[in-house]
Each structure stands twice: as C-alpha cells, then as structure tokens.
Amino acid sequence: MPLDRLWAGWRAPYLSEVTGDAPSADECLFCRLAAADPDEAFVVARDERAFVVLNAYPYTSGHVMVAPLRHEGDLEALAADDATALMRLTQRATAAVKRAYSPEGVNVGVNLGAAAGAGVPGHLHVHVVPRWNADTNFMTAIAETRVLPESLPDTLVRLREAWASVGLGPTGPAPKAPRGEEA
Length: 183
What we know:
This protein is an alpha+beta fold. It has one domain: HIT family, subunit A. It has six helices and five strands, in the order αααβββαββαα. It has helices at residues 11-18, 29-35, 38-41, 80-101, 138-141, 152-165, and strands at 43-46, 50-54, 64-68, 105-110, 126-131. Strands 1-2-3-5-4 form a five-stranded antiparallel sheet, sandwiched between helices. The longest helix is centred in the middle third of the chain and has 22 residues, at 80-101.
C-alpha cells in the first residue's frame, strides 16, 4: 500500500509563527507558554527548571509535552540540572497520563531538529502520548481524520487531578532509592 499524505495546511502558518528561521526566546512558543498564565497556557505542572503543557494539536487526548524553562534546542547542550528536571517531569507526566487515561502503552519521545519532525526546533521538548491497542477506527483508518473525544480544558482538569491524586505536587515526591540501596 503506498504511503498516503495528509496535508495539514493550517500547520505551515502555525509553524512559521512559532519557529521562524531561528527563533529567539522572546519568539519561542515554549518560552511564551512558560511565562503565560498556567490556565490559559494549559500548563499541567511545573517546577523551577521545567514544565508540562498540553499539546494544543494533540495526536490523542492526554498528549502532553515536557520542556525545560531554559530556551535550548540541543539535548547535548542542556545543563545537567535542566536535563534531570526534564526527565523527572517526564516520568511524572507519564504517571499522570497513565492514571488519568489507563492507556495500554505510552509513547515518549523527542524530535531534535526540524528534519526530525520538531515543530519547535529551537526549544527541545519531550512528547508523552497515551496509546491503546487497536486505536484505529473508520475516521482514522479510512477518512484520515482523528477524533479527539475531550476538549483541552477538560483534559487539563483531568491531568491536574491525576497529577495530584498520585501525590505529584508541583515537583512530586522524593525519588525512591535504587534497588539494594533502601534505607
């Protein structure tokens, strides 16, 4: 079967608006979201180095992105403290997504650079996407359209409740000791 292409004409203006050729921190979508009102920006949680935000154009309900507060597009250039915070919040976002949606799997990934699919290549971010077996139906498989059953405001409430219900406050619980090092 040949590869079909789904043209999303709305994406080009959106991407040029948020990325440009080499966006500065002032022009960056993630920098603007980090500085905005958390309710208006759909920020689920944050700590002193990173934050979790809903994807405004999700692949499925519950799709979040985790980004460092620092404007950086290269994973290898990220400061160790920022990288640690990014992964810690990614773990916690995964736990909240699992709690809120009970998916059968979760995609977690980073697209580095425009050629790798990064919509905002100047500010790295990790995608956390809940997935279910046989998550296809007529609309996706035949009509090439994804139906999202939940609004972004409803998703925000659901994920914030899940975040709180698993004891994940803004920065979450203290990390567990590695195996064999319990106190």
